[in-house]
Amino acid sequence: MKGITNMQDSTISPSVDFDLNGTQHGFLKLPYSHDDSAWGCIMIPVTVIKNGDGPTALLTGGNHGDEYEGITGLLKLANSLEPEQINGRVIIVPAMNYPAVLNGTRTSPIDQGNMNRSFPGNPAGSITERIADYFQRYLIPMCDFALDIHSGGKTLDIIPFAAAHRLDNANQEASCIEGAKLFGAPNTMILFELDAASLYDTAVESQGKILVTTELCGGGTSTPETVALAERGIHNFLIFAGITEGEYDLPQQPTRLLDMPDATCYLQSEHKGLLEMCVSLGDDIHEGQLVARVYSLERTGQPPQQYFARRDGVLAARRHPALIDIGDTFAVLATDVASAASE
């Protein structure tokens, strides 16, 4: 690959030249020997669109294989964006964990790898770790801005938001939050992660890049509304990155700023059974309020286990399936920053 050295320790090879002007549609080719193909390859689709010097945006979907808004929006972008519309470079990987996308699952069917828990990766590791390593050492260093589009997948329903994180670098944090606001989702979240160390987000941010991520509803499907939200956000993000020109397409209602300060925002079940949510997505919740009940499915005559909010907040996410196991998160609360400031 032109402009990239020391590639011999990665088994992934690109069929595109990242330094070439114009539009290229190709693959990140990862050798994978298996029962049906002794000398096979996993062919991860990639599009590179370049027009002269300028910033680079790395746009990804399919980090989890059952989250479809990003995949759809980026496939459409790869079909429509022309070099003369940009200043710089756009790298599009619509299906980051390609085996998971083909399988319609959160994790890879090959190694059960969760791409968003596999960084910094390993060039000699599992299939998922090898993909993560290629992003970590080759694609992320190329970019100035990164947009990773998520939704809730099969197990979560989530109010639509774009998100950034608290960072040690105040200027980087401010730019990420500004990019999240300009994405144009109904909500902008300052996101607290339970396991940040191995996230793609952390890999990007630790290299000093500007990252915006999203959660665009869920349920393991997409709708015309959620795909339109992804497309609008991609349009706005490229303007924010200085790669395209034009007007931001922002909703009439300003985005609502939400904050997740700590782990008390997450409610996990300590019981297995049937989940009954007692509040609805988007509801305002008060500390001590009944949020959910879990019923034993092993016998009748057992009172349900009750779960109460540990803080005030908006119900930003909930478990989608009604069956629940010990350790499953069933509710996520976030603080409305404007409401909290007015109190």
Lay out the secondary structure.
Layout: E1 13-14, E2 22-31, E3 41-51, E4 56-60, H1 68-80, E5 88-93, H2 98-103, H3 127-142, E6 145-148, E7 156-158, E8 161-164, H4 170-183, E9 187-190, H5 200-206, E10 210-215, H6 224-240, E11 256-259, E12 266-268, E13 273-277, E14 284-285, E15 290-295, E16 305-308, E17 313-319, E18 323-324, E19 329-336, H7 337-342
Parallel strand pairs: 4-5, 4-6, 6-10, 8-9, 9-11
Antiparallel strand pairs: 1-2, 2-3, 3-5, 7-17, 8-10, 11-19, 12-19, 13-15, 13-18, 14-17, 15-16, 17-19
Helix pairs in contact: 1-6, 4-6
Question: Would you kindly provide a written description of the structure presented here, covering whatever features stand out?
Answer:
The protein has seven helices and 19 strands. The protein has two domains: 13-259, Aminopeptidase; 263-342, Beta Barrel (OB fold (Dihydrolipoamide Acetyltransferase, E2P)), CATH 2.40.50.100. The chain is α+β, with helices and mostly antiparallel strands and 343 residues long. It starts with 12 loop residues before the first strand and ends with a helix. It is 23% helix and 28% strand. It has helices at 68-80, 98-103, 127-142, 170-183, 200-206, 224-240, 337-342; strands at 13-14, 22-31, 41-51, 56-60, 88-93, 145-148, 156-158, 161-164, 187-190, 210-215, 256-259, 266-268, 273-277, 284-285, 290-295, 305-308, 313-319, 323-324, 329-336. The longest helix is centred in the C-terminal third of the chain and has 17 residues, at 224-240.
What's the quick description here?
The chain has helices spanning 68-80, 98-103, 127-142, 170-183, 200-206, 224-240, 337-342, and strands at 13-14, 22-31, 41-51, 56-60, 88-93, 145-148, 156-158, 161-164, 187-190, 210-215, 256-259, 266-268, 273-277, 284-285, 290-295, 305-308, 313-319, 323-324, 329-336.
